[in-house]
Design brief:
single chain, about 350 residues, mainly beta, disordered N terminus
Amino acid sequence: MARTNYVAGSTVTAADLNTIGAEVNTVTTGAATTLHSLLEQSPAPSVTTQATSQTKAVGETATFTSAATTLPGPYPARPAVGRVLFQGINHPGELLLPGDIAFSYPAPVPTVQWQSRVSPADWVNILGATAPSYTTPPLTTSENGRQYRPLWNNLFGSTPGAAAVLTVTGTGGGAGTVQLSDSFNRADSTTTLGSTDGGTLSLRAWVMYGAATYGIAGNTAYNATGGEGVAAVETSDADVTITVPLTVGVSAANPDMAVVFRLVDASNFLYAQVNGGGLQVGKKVGNIFANLGSPYSFTPVDGTIYTVKVVTVGSSIEVFLDGVSRVAFNDTTHQTATKHGLRLFESTDRADSFEVI
């Protein structure tokens, strides 16, 4: 749209200005012109409450809170040109100066997107975290040192808040107690995974489902024969937090490694899978695979560890990759099943450890 130029002697009111989505009006020549019902403001969000660093125990949650506004108050000193003005508090006799820009709608309310990273990695948006407060899922030691920040946005710019650091300590207690864990630190085997070696529950034997045989290699779990098959343990709990660092096999023909949860048998379970296209969550029902939620696309790198965390509460399922929420949805399939484990299709893929809270 055409820009409107006001010159000396003009009378400008809010009704003279364009509406949202139209070209703004500016004074480019002539003397100052009287402007009514406008408030002098800065266009970018201003963070008024910063998120604070926190220390929590394993199994607890952490809540980060921030606030921002597009109305930080009038300039302490009136600049000669270049001010941005929004419709708002009535200031009779306000002057529109050459170089000023005026909008005929109120200052936009900022929105927020929470982000997370493990420094020095890039900041990544947290799925669905668009409220002034963000609460993490129950914490594991893998979250220790993770940073969180809000990114406040409006129509004219973005302002990041200060980074808050999360420190996770101890082994937790109550709902956060580690029920089962396995370091896989034992003798190599091509025929068995053995039994879990940690947690409050009695040691549980790993059970194979399907044709594949799982074993131990270099203190990691792997599929000794390759191909379709699952290894799982009984936890007696369908609502769990499962954390597994998965390593992409070097020169793997087709990276295909997954955390399996709510398993009934070899033909019925849910899974969170890292494959050649990224992170995909799905289910197997009656031996038929189906995708769940929206996949998170990235290209896995050979030899790289990717930590997958699955949080199940009733029908709610959320999957994290390297501490960042990537897939979230609701599904009631196999909701009461209490076996959880691994699906490593390639014999070169590895699971470095296994933990169930």
